[in-house]
Design a protein that fits this description.
Blueprint: E1 6-7, E2 10-11, H1 19-29, E3 45-48, E4 51-53, H2 58-65, H3 75-78, H4 85-95, H5 102-106, H6 124-130, H7 132-146, H8 154-161, H9 168-193, H10 201-219, H11 224-235
Antiparallel strand pairs: 1-2, 3-4
InterPro entries: RVT-Znf
Pfam family, one: zf-RVT
């Protein structure tokens, strides 16, 4: 309790060496010590500037501890209601360019070309979707939604996904397909790195197609009409004969 750290109207706290602790002690000493006849201690949590409450809020605590930055527009492609968490996480790493691609390992003296097509410089932008292998998967899945705007360029693809001139259902499907494709291409890339059996682009497409159908089916209980229409829209995707 606070009263145990004071006596005779003075703070009675042991000395410390750590600079973090010394900074904390300086803050404590700037507050008058409680009188011995003061009322019992009360625990109050800081909820903002000059706002103390008896209840704890993890949200308010996090807001005060974290570093605040302007919101990035691409976060709408990463975090959305219909997203699959493990896909969103890999997509988030891709946007931050934190995936362990060959370009990053080159800085450690390890040369790793693209194992999907043989391109010497395996970068994030190459994998998604300048690589002929990954672009074949991407255009097969989303060509019917993007039309002439389908592109192997990362920046142009993201710009297209952020466009507001599209129906909500198509936007949701594109974001789902985008994340599922990034996750699947990255998984296939890693699988080949570890001597796994390679999959053809058509096999990856079939896996992603099934994944998206399953995701839509799992959401249908929320808004049957909306997700029913979304399923019909996805099923309208042309498939190779």
């Amino acid at each position: 309790m606070v009263s145990a750290a004071a006596s005779g109207g003075q703070w009675n706290i042991r000395r410390c060496r750590g600079h973090h602790l010394r900074a904390m002690m300086a803050c404590i000493y700037s507050v008058p010590a409680p009188a011995e006849d003061a009322a019992g201690d009360r625990r109050l949590w800081h909820h903002g500037e000059g706002n103390y409450r008896p209840c704890f809020s993890s949200k308010e605590t996090w807001e005060q501890l974290r570093s605040h930055h302007p919101r990035l527009n691409w976060t709408r492609v990463v975090w959305f209601q219909q997203g699959v968490p493990r896909f969103s996480f890999i997509t988030w790493l891709a946007f931050l360019d934190r995936l362990a691609t060959g370009a990053r390992s080159k800085a450690w003296g390890c040369i790793q070309p693209c194992i999907l097509c043989g391109e010497p410089d395996e970068t994030r932008d190459h994998l998604f979707f300048a690589c002929p292998y990954s672009f074949t998967v991407w255009i097969d899945l989303t060509g019917f939604l993007l039309g002439s705007r389908v592109s192997p360029d990362w920046t142009l693809t993201v710009t297209s996904l952020l466009s507001s001139r599209r129906k909500e259902i198509d936007t949701c499907l594109l974001k789902l397909a985008f994340q599922a494709t990034i996750h699947s291409i990255w998984r296939e890339r890693n699988n080949r790195r570890h001597q796994g059996d390679p999959l053809s682009p058509s096999q990856v497409v079939r896996y992603i197609d099934k994944t998206i159908r399953n995701r839509i089916s799992s959401l249908r209980h929320r808004k049957p009409a909306f997700y029913g229409e979304m399923m019909q829209r996805w099923l309208s995707r042309p498939t190779p004969s």
